[in-house]
Design a protein that fits this description.
The chain is mainly beta. Helices cover 9% and strands 35% of the residues. It has 18 helices and 73 strands. Strands 54, 55, 56, 57 and 58 form a five-stranded antiparallel β-sheet that branches. The chain is globular, with a radius of gyration of 32 Å. The two termini are 44 Å apart. Mean pLDDT is 94; it is low at 1-32.
Length: 1120
């Protein structure tokens, strides 16, 4: 799919409105009744009067084989249609009629469908959008319709104009919005701020099943593009899709109209199913939009379904929550998805898509129009076949929770069932043609196919919907059982509203083949559940969508933006709802209207609903934005003279090891700084990937850089440079250069894994010299120290891995400097470095305070490992307190962070935002053995779910590695049910190389003395991604050591979302071993690429930080 890049400009009209404030009385909640057992109670249809049931049944004319979305369900809309102060409900039906229920009070509703003017013409309704589109003060209803390929009239959307008397008139054609393309849902927004609600449609291509006439045809055609209709203000709409720049084609499922980039204008986030990437249309404030999804997110969901936008971490920034369809349960995840294809994955990217994974995405707003997906960290990454997701404070504790519907009537992606259905249909055809060679005068396959027999071949498992309680600090807890939301169902659209005006949010769900759920929220009976609610109005009935409301309470802020639709297919209430926990007063509420005028209300009592209307508008208040002069770092990449971009070579690691968890060919680039010509200026070496030259840049007095000895370095291009160090090896007063050779491109023991030492001739030239007894290991790191205090510099070189034999432990080296000659002295002075493991980083230090230099290593599948210097011999010792702290450690640095006189450490790990999870009790592990006796070893990754130990990878890729599994196991369902020892055999596993990881948390390692240590998890922001490099300094000049980190891992195997949520992090130390996070906005430091190295240099009399990124440009930040 080609990306459109055109931007159009269009002048806008502003609107000036005024504010007034009223208060509304609500029931006295000062004396609450005794709390009920559960947070929610599912009400009986006989009690509520709501008996809506979205009944679905496959028929000859309409079925799952013709329409892939046949089991997609429909939505529900909330609105006070008769202005009586009670929220009413509208349900969309697929094969059944839509229904309208009027709230009679006390959670009792009356079905007024037949008397209100709602029609039933046999159309397939999906989405419900509620808004006052003609500014008369009464809510209207817009119904989105789709399916029926051969009956476009039944796909025409409906617009019910409220007659203000309890009846509606269908007026879509009159208003020009009776679009019959195929519309999944729609949202209203005032995109040009003219005071009239415009209409955005999720129009899309046919959604063909495998036996549709559209199956196998090109679907992403321009004719199926999204549509935007501008409201003329004269009871009519005109299409402006092309002019507005949103004429994109996808497979849209959900939309949120929200101010994503905090500029006061409404943007659009559109989720797309299948391989089409999501769209993020940023409002250009001139009537046009720009799709900025590529720069905004590092990756996204693959089968994106519902979307909601809200502030989940109370930082006054709107976050984006998108749901997909991967199961949390081991069995369902392996039986219902056959696995991702690496070539297909890359093809989607090459065709203009994105990095797309079958997981939910919780895109945390970084405050600069970029987002970091923290779904794996929150625990909300996998919620099965999800549809609608709602973000709201359901327990009134001041933190927004989530509710997610899921379930599919039949598991059409069950791999075994899919094959059985195909075989059954083929056999039915064959049998018929054998009996009637001329075709038997039938019109279609469905004349001879019994659909009940087809659906009987597919599993049908109703599922619990998900509910997550927000515990703060991005920790979410599953609470559907605790909260009484544990009914199994096939649920689709959902909405929230305070249906009984008691100050908490009730939930309504549209189900397939069962009555709709109406959950009464019982929070009013619980302690610590105070609230305040706002009803935003305009006296002239102009729209208030896009209003931003901030509530301030002590040092905390809550943010709410008023938008039209949430989740999928549905519209929730339009009230602003804030939970307040046990607070009895609100310090202030600031309402910022769409015209950027503000209303401020202070010192408010709780447990009330306040009506706020535009009346006497105040001037916009000054914002407390961080000034650029106040930040510690300034991005000076554009002005920095050195224009270096690392280019990674293309290499398929998985050709050699199918189940490799991540590539090992993308570890570079190397970066080193040193004064090579003794002119007092810092020069740079930047390494190249295999096949690409490294570069030596000499700094000039004016701060510019000159590329030096180009031809010489080109000759070294076959090597993969992964680390480098300027160090005077021969004590001639000039900095020599040591470069570590690494990567995975060559076979084990290849000459291109030999490290290189380049001796500086003092005139700017370098020559390569031999290192005695050097090994041919794919390396990772080099660290220098005069460990024996003989006046010259010795080196430790860490071995990263054995090429094509992950996770075999690699050899590391100790290179002793003997009169300017480096000699591999590992066997005599550090023999335990042989086979020590997959080392990633190291630091020389005197951890035991005995006056000599010791060595500390970290690595993948390794504990933090200490080598004590015993009279010149490096001996591995047990670090008490760290014996079982095995992880995927990527980096380590030292410092006395608690000012007690000894050396502490900060260690960068994989982080807690990765698909892989672990603990000491239930470790993530790996086995390496020749399980099928074919002469090559196989990788088996394991994980725990509950108390069961399963293979991580699914049947498809596991049987690609070991083809014999196809004959041994045969079916996906069988493989999905088997534990790891049942698949691979106890004896084989016991004889395998076996590693366990017990923690993935990046950590502070406190030195307690006497060889004892204590590991403490770093702040949650340090867990967003792996940490590849660490810099220690007192950045804010308060006398305490701070920690600056960079990271990310873009080379994950394709069934695991890549680690790209890291944005660089500054953690300020307090001198007591504690760290507080300074946000990117406050620090000015932002590094969200695949950052591998960080160094500091002097340039133009300034201190500058350089970030070396894999396959990207060098970044530069100037330190204040």
């Amino acid at each position: 799919m080609k990306k459109l890049r055109k931007v159009y400009f269009f002048w806008f009209l502003g609107i000036l409105t005024v504010l007034c404030i009223f208060s509304i009385a609500i029931p006295d909640l000062s004396s609450k009744q005794a709390p009920l057992d559960k947070r929610f109670t599912l009400l009986d249809p006989l009690t509520t009067g709501i008996d809506f049931n979205n009944k679905i049944k496959d028929t000859q004319e309409h079925n799952i084989l013709l329409y892939a979305n046949f089991y997609g369900g429909a939505g529900v809309g909330v609105g006070d249609f008769n202005n009586d102060g009670l929220q009413d409900l509208y349900f969309a039906g697929n094969l059944v009629s839509d229904k309208l229920y009027i709230n009679q009070g006390n959670l009792n509703f009356k079905d007024v469908t037949t008397t209100s003017g709602i029609i039933n013409d046999g159309g397939w309704s999906t989405g419900v959008t509620i808004a006052d589109i003609n500014n008369d003060g009464f809510l209207d209803i817009y119904v989105s319709r789709e399916l029926y390929d051969n009956k476009p009239a039944l796909r025409a959307n409906l617009l019910y104009i409220n007659n203000t008397d309890g009846t509606f008139t269908e007026s879509a054609k009159k208003f020009g919005v009776d679009d019959s393309q195929r519309t999944r849902h729609a949202t209203f927004l005032d995109y040009n701020k003219d005071g009239f609600l415009d209409l955005f449609l999720l129009t899309q291509p046919p959604n063909p099943g495998g036996y549709s006439k559209f199956s196998g045809t090109t679907l992403l055609k321009p004719e199926y593009h999204l549509k935007l209709f501008k409201n003329t203000g004269k009871n009519s709409f005109i299409e402006v899709s092309e002019k507005a720049g949103i004429k994109y084609t996808g497979f849209p499922s959900g939309v949120s109209a929200s101010d994503i980039n905090n500029d006061g204008w409404t943007d659009l986030y559109v989720t797309n199913d299948f391989y089409a990437p999501d769209f993020l249309f940023i409002n250009n404030q001139d009537g046009t939009f720009t799709n900025s999804i590529d720069s905004a997110v590092g990756h996204m969901s693959y089968y994106s379904m519902g979307v909601d936008v809200a502030d989940i971490n109370n930082d006054a920034l709107l976050d984006i929550f998108v749901v997909d369809m991967v199961a949390e349960d081991n069995f369902r995840s392996k039986s219902n998805m056959s696995g991702m294809n690496p070539k297909r994955f890359q093809q989607v990217i090459d065709d203009g898509g994105h990095y797309q994974y079958m997981y939910n995405a919780v895109q945390l707003n970084n405050g600069n129009s970029t987002f970091s997906d923290v779904a794996q960290l929150t625990g909300m990454g996998a919620t099965d076949w999800s549809w609608s997701n709602l973000i709201a404070d359901f327990n009134n504790d001041g933190l927004k929770d989530t509710y997610i519907t899921n379930g599919l009537l039949y598991d059409i992606r069950n791999t075994d069932a899919d094959k059985n259905v195909a075989r059954f249909i083929d056999k039915t055809r064959y049998d018929w043609l054998e009996k009637y060679p001329d075709g038997g005068n039938i019109k279609s396959l469905f004349d001879i196919l019994n659909l009940e027999d087809v659906t009987a071949l597919m599993p049908s498992q109703p599922l619990k919907n998900y509910a997550f309680k927000n515990n703060g600090n991005l920790e979410f807890q599953k609470v559907m059982d605790d909260w009484g939301l544990d009914q199994e169902s096939f649920s689709n659209g959902s909405a929230y509203a305070d249906l009984d005006n008691d100050g908490d949010l009730d939930i309504v769900v549209n189900n397939i083949n069962s009555e709709a759920f109406v959950y009464r929220n019982n929070s009013e009976t619980f302690s610590n559940s105070n609230f305040i609610r706002l009803e935003l109005i305009n006296e002239a009935h102009k729209p208030v969508l896009g209003t931003r409301t901030n509530l301030y309470l002590g040092n905390e802020v809550q943010t709410h933006e008023t938008t039209n639709v949430r989740g999928i297919y549905s519209t929730s209430e339009s009230f602003v709802h804030f939970g307040l926990n046990n607070a009895t007063k609100v310090d202030s509420i600031v309402v910022t209207w769409p015209n950027q005028m503000k209303t401020v209300k202070r010192n408010l009592t709780v447990n009330q609903t306040i009506q706020i209307a535009m009346n006497t508008a105040s001037k916009p208040a000054d914002t407390a934005e961080v000034k650029k002069s106040d930040v510690l770092f300034t991005n000076s990449s554009e002005s920095f003279d050195l224009n270096f971009k690392h280019t990674e070579n293309s290499f398929d690691d998985y050709k050699y090891q199918v189940l490799l968890p991540h590539k090992l060919s993308q570890i570079g680039p190397a970066m080193a700084a040193g004064d090579v010509n003794n002119d007092g200026l810092d020069d740079l070496y930047l390494g190249g990937a295999s096949g690409f030259s490294g570069y030596l840049y000499i700094q000039n007095k004016n701060g510019s850089f000159t590329n030096s000895n180009i031809d010489f370095w080109k000759k070294e291009s076959p090597y993969e440079d992964v680390d480098a160090l300027f160090v005077d090896i021969n004590n001639d007063g000039f900095q020599d250069l040591y470069v570590v050779s690494g990567g995975n491109e060559y076979p084990a023991n290849d000459e291109h894994y030999v490290d290189r030492l380049y001796i500086n001739d003092g005139k700017g030239g370098f020559s390569k010299v031999a290192i005695l007894n050097v090994t041919r290991d794919s390396g990772a790191v080099v660290k220098a120290a005069d460990y024996d205090k003989d006046g010259d510099i010795d080196l430790f070189v860490g071995g990263r891995h054995v090429p094509h034999q992950y996770p075999l432990p690699a050899n590391s080296m100790f290179l002793k400097n003997e009169n300017g000659q480096l000699v591999n002295a590992t066997q005599t002075l550090a023999k335990e470095l042989n086979g020590i493991g997959m080392v990633t980083d190291a630091v020389w230090n005197d951890y035991d305070g005995d006056g000599d230099t010791d060595l500390t290593l970290v690595g993948e599948w390794m504990p933090i490992t200490f080598f004590r210097n015993d009279n010149g011999v490096l001996n591995k010792v047990v670090a008490t307190g760290l014996e079982n702290e095995t992880g995927w450690w990527f980096s380590i640095e030292k410092g006395d962070f608690d000012k007690d006189g000894d050396v502490d450490f900060v260690a960068g790990n994989l982080g807690l935002n990765y698909k892989y999870k672990t603990s000491k009790e239930k470790p993530f592990d790996i086995y390496y053995n020749d399980f099928d006796s074919n002469g090559s070893n196989d990788i088996v990754l394991g994980y725990y779910q509950g108390n069961k130990h399963f293979p991580l990878r699914g049947f498809s890729c596991s049987s690609e590695q070991i083809p014999g599994l196809k004959d041994k196991i045969g079916k996906y369902d069988v493989f999905a049910a088997l534990e790891i020892e049942q698949v691979y055999g106890d004896e084989n596993l016991q004889n395998a190389l076996h590693y366990k990881a017990t923690t993935f948390a990046s950590s502070y390692i406190e030195n307690l003395g006497d060889g004892r240590f204590k590991r403490t998890q770093l702040p949650v922001q340090a867990q967003f991604s792996n940490i590849n490099d660490i810099m220690i300094s007192d950045f804010n000049k308060d006398g305490d050591l701070d920690v600056l980190t960079v990271g990310n891992l873009f080379a994950s195997e394709i069934e695991t979302p890549r680690n790209d949520a890291g944005t660089g992090l500054l953690m300020l130390g307090n001198g007591k071993g504690d760290f507080s996070v300074m946000s990117n906005k406050e620090s000015g430091f932002f590094a969200n690429l695949n950052a591998k190295k960080i160094i500091m240099i002097s340039n133009k009399e300034q201190k500058k930080l350089l970030i070396a990124n894999n396959n990207e440009k060098l970044q530069c930040f100037t330190l204040k």
